[in-house]
Amino acid sequence: MLSDVNLLGPELVLLVVGAFLLIADLFLKDRRLLMGIAALALLGSILYSAILLTEGHMGSQGFGGVLVVDKFAVFFQILIAGAALVAVLVSTETLQRTPSRRGEYLALILFSTAGLQLLAGSRDLIMIFIALELTSISQYILVGFHKDRWGSEGGLKYLLTGAIASAVLLYGMVILLGLTGSTNLSEIAQYIAWQGEGSEEALILAATFLIVGFGFKAAVAPFQMWAPDAYTGAPTPIAAYLSVASKAAAFAILIRVFFEALGDDLLAEHWKTIFAVLATISMVVGNFFAIRQNNIKRMLAYSSVAQAGTLLIGLAAISADRSELLGASGILFYLAGYTVTNLAAFTVIVLVANQNGGSYDLKSYRGLGARSPWLAIVLAFALISLIGLPPTAVFFGKIYLFETAVQSGLTWLAVVGAANTLVSAAYYLRPVKAMFIDDAETEPSDEIMVRPANSVIATMGLVTAGVLVIGLHPGLLINAAEAAVAAIFS
User: Fold this and answer.
1) Rounded distance, CA 129 to CA 325, Å?
2) Secondary structure E strands in 288-367
3) What is the DSSP code string of 346-399?
4) Which one, of 403, 404, 405, lies nearest residue 413 by Cα?
5) I want to staple 359 with a disulfide (CB 3.0 to 4.6 A). Which of 57, 191, 364, 430 is the partner?
6) Which 3 state secondary structure label does DSSP give 62?
7) CA end-to-end distance (rounded Å), the chain
8) Rounded Cα–Cα distance for residues 414 and 406 (Å)
9) Considering only CA atoms, which of 120, 129, 121, 137 is closest in space to residue 174?
10) All residues at 6 or more sequence positions from 180 whose CB lies less than 8 Å from its CB, including other chains
11) Backbone angles phi, psi at 450, to 5 degrees
12) 3-state percent helix, strand, coil for the chain, nearest multiple of 5
């Protein structure tokens, strides 16, 4: 039993410290101390995952097989905790606005992160649902944390659509349980291999419901309706966290469920078609609506929909050719590159909003290159990476995914992805133009700008360096991604 609890170590660290923060908030009023405790908890979770990786626990299953610790799960545990750490470190201004709820805010981030980490290592439908609800409830509250019009609207829409998505997901799980008599992914896979013939229609129906539920979490079109309002209303660090951590966990569980439990050749052809269609819809819808946005947070919300479509190319490629594991490792590589890139962009957005009275309108970025050249350079670099231009993290991720699509016989999907990459440049370069070419609407003020917190500056430098390092030296991350997916497809 203690060995099982040990496998839950990364999540337990966050849950215990999160509960402590709820109580400590009654007595500790120092914002920096509370942030430090939350940051240490996330670092502790990352360290615990690394210890499990190095001490021979890989492949260990706990609690009757509902939880597994393998390289795939550890990859996502570290990635998700890292994204949460960035969100905590750039939350200085958010915590200044809410002096009476600082512990609650930080605790909810830790609870949500623990749920996402559990999701990556779950091998049972019941555990998947519990982990999903743990993170979802925390995120609903975080999105509506600012009790203003936009926060309330975004939180309510996220809650209502999330409840519907959870119900649809649960219905799909119930169908699978009724068909196979089990909630364990391995036992479901065995049933399909031995007795699945003749049950294809029911299995496809169940899988469709699962795709809706997980697709909602990943902001895949047409299940993305919550994202623009949630991103707009949420505190900006939470919008950054949602854009990368939720997407990473959703794709982790999609890979585990569809290629560990539902990956039989009997069904794979159907998954290829479904994922390819969803990829196309997501890229087109995301890019079309992103072009129309003048609010940078809403623009990045629709951008995340298009990015989810790019990631779905990898899922379609695996379905088309199970021996072509470039698709799976390409998804992990792309997620890591997208995570550091989007976090770099959002960190600058936090700082610019603080300097402009909380405005996220693209007009407020005019002349930023003259006022704050370093902020403008970092944001421009992040946006160029999101397009997928060299030498950046996302560039190699897109090459990875497009190559695997071609090798899997989905050349048309790679062409669609490349075309949408060109379209995305139309809106990613708008802020760049505003910063370096357009003149500011008002004359520069002689008033000295408030210096950002050291934690925010250090975080911005760290994630920006991550974008550059992954772009210049992708080999280490590629090796880590390939080792992680080998745990699923070996």
Assistant:
1) 27
2) none
3) HHHHHHHHHHTTT--BGGGGTTHHHH-HHHHHHHHHHHHHHHT-TTSHHHHHHH
4) 405
5) 364
6) strand
7) 28
8) 7
9) 129
10) 187, 188, 191, 192
11) -65, 130
12) 80, 0, 20
The residues, ordered by sequence, that sit 6+ positions from 174 with a Cβ below 8 Å of its Cβ are none
Q: What are the residues whose beta carbons fall under 8 Å from the beta carbon of 163, sequence distance 6 or more?
A: none
Burial state string for 209-237 with b = 16 or more CB within 10 A and e = fewer than 16: bbbbbbbbbbbbbebbebbbbbbbbbbbb
In what helix (H) or strand (E) does residue 410 lie, and over which residues does it extend?
A: none
Confirm if 319 and 272 have CB atoms less than 8 A apart: yes
* DSSP 8-state secondary structure symbol assigned to residue 243: I
Query: What phi, psi does 239 have (nearest 5°)?
Result: -60, -40
Q: How long, in residues, is the chain? A: 490
Assigned token pair, 86 = 């960035």
For 75-229, where are the E strands, in sequence order? none
For every one of its 490 residues, what pLDDT tens digit does the chain have, with 9 covering 90 and above? 666 788 888 999 999 999 999 888 888 777 788 889 999 999 999 999 998 888 766 667 777 778 888 889 999 999 999 999 999 999 887 777 776 678 899 999 999 999 999 999 898 999 999 999 999 999 999 998 887 788 888 889 999 999 999 999 999 999 999 988 888 888 888 888 787 677 788 888 998 999 999 999 898 988 888 889 999 989 989 999 999 999 999 999 999 888 888 876 667 778 888 999 999 999 999 999 999 999 999 999 999 999 999 999 988 888 766 555 677 888 999 999 999 999 999 999 988 887 777 778 888 888 888 888 888 999 999 999 999 888 888 888 898 899 888 888 889 999 999 999 999 999 999 999 989 887 765 555 444 455 677 778 888 889 999 998 888 888 888 888 888 888 777 6
262: DSSP letter: S
Nearest of 285, 158, 307 to residue 226 by alpha carbon: 158
As beta bridge partners, residue 316 has none
Contact, 37 vs 21, CB < 8 A?
Answer: yes
Burial class (CB in 10 A: 0-12, 13-18, 19+), 443: exposed
11 vs 38: CA distance, rounded Å: 13
AA letter at 20: F
Q: What distance in Å separates the CA atoms of residue 386 and residue 421, rounded to the nearest whole number?
A: 9
| 8 Å CB contact between 332 and 399 | no
Nearest to 154 by CA among 226, 103, 209, 51: 226
Q: Which residues pair with 419 in a beta bridge?
A: none
Residue 59 Ramachandran class (φ > 0 left, ψ -120 to 50 alpha, else beta): left
Q: What is the pTM of this model?
A: 0.92
| CB 94, CB 34: distance < 8 Å | no
Nearest to 365 by CA among 289, 288, 428: 428
- Residues 239 and 232: their CA atoms lie apart, in Å, by 8
| Cα–Cα dist 242/289, whole Å | 19
